[in-house]
Design a protein that fits this description.
alpha/beta, Rossmann fold, 5-stranded parallel β-sheet, two-stranded antiparallel ribbon, 7 strands, globular
């Protein structure tokens, strides 16, 4: 049976679209996307638990319920393409193909992590895989995605760059500067705004005159589109069109993937600033349940097959936790100043 969406939700969430795979997207790839979405959900669910148990360091921001955006977007890329992430970046890393063991080691502050334990949750980078880093500064990754696109064009690499950011990032001055430059130089960059309606505790409509953010792109002669951010196929289709456009030398695109943030801004946020009862009906939109129902309703996969995929995601995260807890080492003191400056040397 399809997931039943309450009428009030359909009325208010105007970009809702039913799950339907685009032509040419094989069932095998669809199931792979389902696995990756489950892996992200399980990873960030466990990260919240681990943080509450004081087993991981620093702060963490959950990507739970936004899985369709990262997975749909990265599924439309080639392995050589680039992404730039945000403070809420675990989902982007996993969707781009980063190793959850090395990610978990980084969160544990271990030397075997992607940044040798020095970056933590908000600063994971997997450059060899095209994941150019996460940012703790709101909108901080926007110019990095622009620079990656510029290098691709100048060096004729044929690579596309995606810059993920939130609705808060779209109010940063650098968003407008980057959009203008990308349009003027026809750079192969795609900006994806993960609009979850809240910048920490600030509702978008309180600080933005035009809350349909995709319309802003028109002012820079950039095509802007709005998609259901809970629908992995809708995101994939929009990004695929933008990727094809960028590779053809036609320049940037802007995609507003609209959602509603179900959880707190970070793992210990008690959400005092909103009535959580108003959020509960929108859980019917969450992407894993809708994708699961799509497979079953269209007889593309059976219950047993889907359970195997879900259990594999659980197993992979359990192994990542075990690796970070038991097989990894603390950063040695003599490595303290490495990676701080170019070449690893201290400038005196």
């Amino acid at each position: 049976m399809p997931v039943e969406i309450p009428k009030e939700v359909l009325k208010n969430f105007k970009c809702y679209t039913p799950y339907k795979a685009p032509e040419g997207l094989s069932v095998k790839k669809q199931l792979g996307m389902f696995y990756t979405m489950n892996l992200i959900r399980e990873f960030d669910t466990k990260v919240t638990d681990l943080w509450m148990e004081n087993k991981i360091y620093g702060i963490a921001h959950s990507y739970v319920s936004s899985e369709a955006i990262a997975v749909g977007a990265c599924a439309a890329l080639d392995p050589e393409d680039y992404i730039v992430s945000t403070h809420r970046g675990h989902g982007h890393c996993i969707a781009k193909g980063s190793d959850v063991k090395k990610m978990m080691a980084e969160l544990y502050g271990k030397y075997e992590g992607y940044n040798h334990g020095k970056g933590g949750s908000m600063h994971i980078a997997d450059v060899e895989n095209g994941m150019l880093g996460a940012q703790g500064i709101v909108g901080g990754g926007i110019p990095f995605a622009l620079g990656a696109a510029l290098s691709s064009k100048v060096l004729n690499k044929g690579r596309v760059s995606i810059g993920f950011h939130g609705d808060g990032g779209s109010n940063q001055g650098v968003w407008h500067e980057a959009m203008n430059m990308a349009s003027a130089y026809k750079l192969p960059v795609i900006y994806i705004c993960e609009n979850n309606q809240l910048a920490i505790s600030t509702p978008l409509q309180n600080v933005t005159g035009q809350s349909d953010l995709y319309l802003r792109a028109n002012g820079y002669a950039v095509p802007g589109v709005l998609v259901d951010g809970y629908n992995v196929f809708a995101v994939y289709e929009a990004v695929k069109k933008a990727v094809d456009r960028a590779r053809a030398g036609q320049g940037p695109s802007f995609i507003e993937a609209r959602t509603i943030r179900f959880l707190g801004h970070f793992v210990a946020d008690d959400q005092w600033y909103r009535d959580l009862d108003t959020v509960k009906p929108y859980w019917s939109l969450e992407p894993l349940g809708r994708m699961r129902a799509y497979f079953l309703d269209n007889k593309l996969a059976g219950e047993d097959e889907l359970k195997i995929i879900e259990q594999q995601a659980v197993k992979d995260v359990e192994e990542a936790i075990d690796y970070a807890s038991n097989d990894c080492t603390e950063p040695p003191a003599e490595k303290l100043y490495e990676d701080v400056y170019a070449g690893g040397e201290i400038i005196k």
